[in-house]
Amino acid sequence: KQEVTQIPAALSVPEGENLVLNCSFTDSAIYNLQWFRQDPGKGLTSLLLIQSSQREQTSGRLNASLDKSSGRSTLYIAASQPGDSATYLCAVRPGSGNTGKLIFGQGTTLQVKP
Amino acid sequence: DAGITQSPRHKVTETGTPVTLRCHQTENHRYMYWYRQDPGHGLRLIHYSYGVKDTDKGEVSDGYSVSRSKTEDFLLTLESATSSQTSVYFCASRDTNTEAFFGQGTRLTVV
């Protein structure tokens, strides 16, 4: 059974820092992995999708990497800003068994202090 | 973002009554999902659909049923609402091998 873990659960950093959020999964057989952002009381906003054949994806100050063999993905945020404060979630689509599902980690809540 | 809307956005209902939540997408996506989000539990999959009339259970499907008679609509029904089903419900959709998009959520309170 695929399980997704995000550590730490919460993170507080001063503005301007570069930071890394972690996502690990127990079964390396995945189709893809997606990173989302959720603001309080809001829905999820897609940030980046990495296919299993890719090693990384970039969008602006965000860079996501994928290492399937070790069951890990990282989301790198450069030059963090207070507006980056939100909960960040990762989700994997299993590559075996029931492949239609999206399985989420519990998220990392980020606070960027001015 | 993809056009995906949920209705209603807020609902208060009494224990024992049936409740139906609606998810509508305009992207012709094949897959649709219903999740619930609760403090300490994150997002948990209730049911999902991989095509019209094709659905499957998620990890917390007891007490819920779904229907998908058209590509664009995915309905979630609480057959007899209980207080444990008080939650925020999210719908999502995606196409094959594309990113998933989420609705804004429905806050359901069962009193």
Topology:
The complex is a heterodimer of chains A (114) and B (111).
Chain A: E1 4-5, E2 10-14, E3 19-25, E4 30-38, E5 44-51, E6 56-59, E7 62-67, E8 72-77, E9 86-94, E10 103-104, E11 108-113
Parallel strand pairs in A: 2-11
Antiparallel strand pairs in A: 1-3, 3-8, 4-5, 4-9, 6-7, 7-8, 9-10, 9-11
Chain B: E1 4-7, E2 10-13, E3 19-25, E4 31-38, E5 42-51, E6 54-57, E7 64-70, E8 73-78, E9 87-94, E10 101-102, E11 106-110
Parallel strand pairs in B: 2-11
Antiparallel strand pairs in B: 1-3, 3-8, 4-5, 4-9, 5-6, 7-8, 9-10, 9-11
What does this structure look like?
The complex is a heterodimer of chains A (114) and B (111). With 114 residues, chain A is mainly β. In chain A, 0% of the residues lie in helices and 56% in strands. Chain A is built from no helices and 11 strands. In chain A, the strands form 2 sheets. In chain A, strands 2, 4, 5, 9, 10 and 11 form a 6-stranded mixed sheet that branches. In chain A, a hairpin with an 8-residue loop joins strand 9 (86-94) and strand 10. The termini of chain A are far apart. By secondary structure, chain B is mostly beta strands. Chain B contains no helices and 11 strands. Chain B has strands at 4-7, 10-13, 19-25, 31-38, 42-51, 54-57, 64-70, 73-78, 87-94, 101-102, 106-110. In chain B, the strands form 2 sheets. In chain B, strands 2, 4, 5, 6, 9, 10 and 11 form a 7-stranded mixed sheet that branches. A 4-stranded antiparallel sheet of chain B has the order 1-3-8-7, with no helix packed on it. In chain B, a hairpin with a 3-residue loop joins strand 4 (31-38) and strand 5. Chain B is globular. The chains are: A mainly beta (114), B mainly beta (111). The interface between A and B is medium-sized, with 22 and 24 residues.
**Average pLDDT number of chain B:** 94
Helical content of chain B stands at under 10%
- Report the order of strands and helices of chain A: EEEEEEEEEEE
The percent range for helix content of chain A is: under 10%
Note the gap between the termini of chain A: 41 Å
How much is the radius of gyration of chain B in Å?
Answer: 13 Å
Uncertain segments of chain B are none
Q: What is the global morphology of chain B?
A: globular
Q: What is the mean predicted local confidence, pLDDT of chain A?
A: 94
Order of helices and strands of chain B: EEEEEEEEEEE
Q: Which geometry of chain A do the CA atoms define?
A: globular
Beta strands of chain B, count:
11
Oligomer: heterodimer
Roughly what fraction of the amino acids of chain B lie in strands? over 45%
* Count of helical regions of chain B: 0
Structural class of chain B: mainly beta
Give the C-alpha Rg of chain A. 14 Å
Query: What is the SS-derived class of chain A?
Result: mainly beta
Strand content of chain A: over 45%
Sheet with most strands of chain A: 6 strands, mixed
